[in-house]
Amino acid sequence: MMNTIDIPNFRMSPVVDQVGVEERVARFTTRSIKKSSKVQALKLALNMIDLTTLEGKDTPGKVKQMCYKAAHLCDQLPDIPTVAAVCVYPTHVRTAKAALTGTGIRVASVTTAFPSGNTTREVKLSDTRFAVDEGADEVDMVISRGEFLEGNYGFVFDEIASIKEACGQARLKVILETGELSTLDNIRRASDIAIYAGADFIKTSTGKIQPAATMPVTLVMLQAIKDHFYKTGKMVGMKPAGGISTAKLAVHYLVMLHETLGDAWMTNEWFRFGASSLANDILLQLGKEKHGTYQSKDYFSND
After folding, report:
1. Among 224, 231, 163, which residue's Cα sits nearest to residue 198?
2. Which of 161, 37, 33, 110 is closest to 274 using CA atoms?
3. Which listed residue, of 8, 40, 57, 294, carries a Cα 20 to 30 Å from 264's Cα?
4. Residue 203 annotated in active site
């Protein structure tokens, strides 16, 4: 674990040119994509989804149904991939793990008093260790936004580093909750802190706060990943989450990903979508490309 005295001066994170970011994002949405490339992009986006249920009313039955959907997205389209992972609360990890045996689909779990993160570090560490002991392949933690906004960057860094250590072999996604960070400069600074503290992925949002993921916010985070890669040679993943519900928007994100980070990141090892409804819209679009007409939404389950 990096000592606090070794932390870079995060107050010196690059200043973000908001106008420049917005202009670049506008260009990503105007790219022309051929039909064959569009189908390939839709399948890739589907394979990058973390299918998620994070509600107080979640039951083992609901989790099992979601896991079945994750492995059998649409049997009428046999040439489509599965999603990358399912994401559940720690108490449902064991159920999901058993339901997904043999599918290759990972199990992710939110921890650290998701979504608020307002508890002690001891509780956050216990929460994380429980999820990992239950079988989680990936852990999605939330940063302490209050500490960050007070300028206590060392606290945020040390907390992330301690959770990373508690993850063991599980990969760590660090949720910034960008809708609460107010500015792109803050988002860049929080991204740098998370990356240097050991995040395997940085993630925009819990999906519980609006605005959630946006393309400008995601571009700023991708740029932080790119700068870190140029400095260290270490790849870090990216996960926009919340508000990405259409296939068209998902493809825009993939264009931005490719033009910012390149081919190496065009895999679910390094990029994910946190989404609940995105999968169904992608399936509708793939069905149209194959059959020439849209199927009824009733053909696809909500969970």
Report:
1. 163
2. 110
3. 8
4. yes
Q: Which of 127, 140, 158, 192 is catalytic?
A: 140
pLDDT tens, position by position, 47-103: 999 999 999 999 999 999 999 999 999 877 878 999 999 999 999 999 999 999 999
Which residues, listed in sequence order, are joined to residue 173 by a DSSP beta bridge? 140, 201
- Concerning whether 297 is annotated as a catalytic residue, the answer is no
Angle, alpha carbons 208-214-300 (nearest 5°) = 65
Q: pLDDT tens digits, residue range 16-55?
A: 999 999 999 999 999 888 877 899 999 999 999 999 999 9
Q: Which of 251, 80, 236 is nearest to 171 (CA)?
A: 236
Q: pTM of the entire structure?
A: 0.93
Residue 141's SS3 state is: strand
Contact between 273 and 253 (Cβ < 8 Å)? yes
Longest dimension (CA), the chain: 61
Reported as a single tens digit per residue, the pLDDT across 108-128 is 999 999 999 999 999 999 999
Distance CA 137, CA 145 (A): 25
One of 69, 97, 124, 203 is an active-site residue; which one? 203
Angle, alpha carbons 45-283-247 (nearest 5°): 50
Our answer to whether residue 239 is catalytic in this structure is yes
Q: Which fold has domain 32-299?
A: TIM Barrel (3.20.20)
